[in-house]
Every structure is written in C-alpha cells, then in structure tokens.
Amino acid sequence: MSVTNALSPASLWETATSQNALEKSLADIAVSVPTVRRIAFLTPSANVDTASVCRLTAQTLARHRSGRVLTTSQVAGAEIVGDSSPSAEQLSALPTSLHESLRLDRLVWVADPDMDDRFFDIHCVDWGMQGPATGALEAAASAHAICVVAPFDRPAAESAVALATALANRADSTPTVIAFTNSTRQRGSWARTVGPYLSVPSVVFDRGLTGPESRIMPSRTERSLTHLAAALLTASLRPGPPSPTRTHEVER
Asked: Which end of the chain lies in a sparser environment, N or C, as judged by fewer CB atoms within 10 Å?
C-alpha cells in the first residue's frame, strides 16, 4: 500500500500557499480604517445562525487588530450578552454617556442596536433572517459590507447565493461575501465546489459556527474565520460610505 509523503513537493507547496494566504489575510485585518466600518450579517434562510457568525467574525477581527470592535443585533428580542464589564481604563477613551450601555464579550464590545458607533473601528451587526425586498435592502443601505450566511444544503443555499448576487449587482451596490456554514453536518461538496462560479467571494466552513462549541475550534475553522474577516474588512474599505441611519448627540 502506497503512503503519501507528508514532505512531498506537492504537499510542501500546498502548505506554503496556505500559509501565505493566511499571512495575507492577517495583514488585511490589521489595516487602519478611516471611519467606522459597518458589516451586516444576514440570511434569507430559516435555521441559519447568523448571530454566531457575526460574533466569531468580530472576535477574529478584535484579536488581530488594535482598534475597538463593536457588535449589536437588529433581530427583534435578541440580546448580545457580554461576559464582563469594561475596566475604567478601557472606558476612559469613550464618552461617559456610553459607559452604562457597554459590556465586553472577551475582546469585543457589545451594546444595544442604537449605540453610537463612531468611537469604534468596526461595527458587526447581526440582522438575522431577512427577505430580499425588505430587511436585506435596509441592511445594505446601512453597511459598508454584507456577509450573507448560507447553509450547505443546496436548495436553501441557492436562495442565499441569489440574494448575495442581487445585493452586489445593484446600482448602489454594497460589497458582499458569502459564508457557507455546515451546521447540519451535510456530506455534500456543493458549497466547496461552487465558489469559483460565483460572482461574489465565498468562504466555506466544514463545521457549523454555532453555540458554545465554537469557543474551541479546529485550526481549519479558525483559518476560515480569518479569511472571512479579512474579506469583509477589505470589502468594507471600498470607496463610498453607506447612507447614514441615525444622528447622535454625544457629550464627553
């Protein structure tokens, strides 16, 4: 029986290519931003956990850059719970009027959806399940980039692909990335093979990004999160700000 040589030229090239791609994504995440970048996470499909993808992407961004990262949710009844209170030193750079509204989820700041985000580098917003003609357009109008979360199941995933393509191809388009997440442990390879045929970038997760288990992730999943975070931040830096969604009066 033949045994594949782990140090063969082909395997070494694949490892080097993968490492180069990872290093590029880490560099893309670390870039400075001119103003707050808003990234919306949504799906047209039922039973797709956009909240976990939003949270884990925010954690990845916060882990690899120095600026503050904020998460909020536009889902009715949803609550993002922080696991600790910010220290006095952490709060000192923020207006006092915001202090009582902020908590920390590890490295990420969490708040109610009407939080003034001008004091943060990146704002990841969970929009949950949204229809293409209603909430998806509202999310697109308020974001610099969109992550459409899709399941591995092809019939359900195709609606997510169609939504991502439509959002990206509008006259006043918002840069869009698809995240395929395998929460139902599908065996099919469609999500992995369709990427080159899509008109928008996609990142594939072989496992689902859901629940407490996602705090301890395989290295392959962590790499995919790094690539997703980098793709979304890079997309959000495309010239052209989103329409303002609200006006804030803040006193220091």
From this structure: N
Could you tell me the pTM of the whole model? 0.85
Q: What is the pLDDT of residue 149?
A: 94
Contact 98, 116 (CB under 8 A): yes
Distances 71 to 51, 103, 109, 207, 233 between C-alpha atoms, Å: 10, 10, 6, 23, 14
Return left, alpha or beta for 194; rule: phi > 0 is left, psi -120 to 50 is alpha, else beta: alpha
Instruction: List CB contacts of 158: < 8 A, sequence separation 6 or more.
Output: none
Structure token digits, residue 202: 């996609």
**% pLDDT > 70, the chain:** 80
Structure-token pair, residue 96: 């006092």
Distance between CA 225 and CA 27 in Å, rounded?
14
More confident residue, 222 or 78: 222
pLDDT, residue 15, reads 53
Handedness of CA 123, 203, 7, 17 (dihedral sign): negative
**Count of Cβ atoms closer than 10 Å to residue 90 Cβ:** 14
Give the helix/strand (H/E) hosting 96.
none
Question: Residue 89 and residue 99: Cα distance in Å, rounded?
Answer: 12
In whole angstroms, give the CA distance from residue 218 to residue 208: 11
Whole-number average pLDDT of the chain: 82
pLDDT of residue 12: 43
Q: For residue 178, what are the β-bridge partners?
A: 148, 202
Highest mean pLDDT among 68-72, 209-213, 234-238: 68-72
